[in-house]
Amino acid sequence: MHTGDDTAFDWIWRDLDHLEAHRDEFLRPVDQILNELRPLAARERPQQIPAERVWLHADWELATIVGTSGLHTVPPDGSQSFWAYRRGRNVPSHLCLARREPTRWVCLWGWWETGAFVIHTMYPGRIAPREIHDPEIPLDELPAAIEFWRNHAIVTEEGQYSPGAPDRSAP
Fold it and tell me: What does pTM read for this prediction?
């Protein structure tokens, strides 16, 4: 059981590549946004840190714009979207060419450890399920992910994706 200040914990980045993939989407410093998220995330902190990793995948609306959302609603007929490989990715993503929209929402995905929250990823926008080709997606989450990604795509730009074999160049 933790005691004292519930907001007294460290942020630890599991993999800074996840931050770099979204850095240009943030319109404010990430450290400033993390300070605003601290009390919100602290409310989700378990009383006791379990031995087995328990993921927190949540989104919150902040008072001011945090960045631009990379998620866009598309028609399920595929007329405004396509499947391709994002740079540095080994699995295809549902993509579209669209304008990123300003958002006050921020999504945080990670888990608690003693004295710290380990950030798997963080991005401006609403919560989204794992992509359907993600090798780590649990089978019981696949139907909901398929339904979500039927109507949603990740905003990209020309030259930032490869329609064929994965482009392993740096993002």
Answer: 0.84
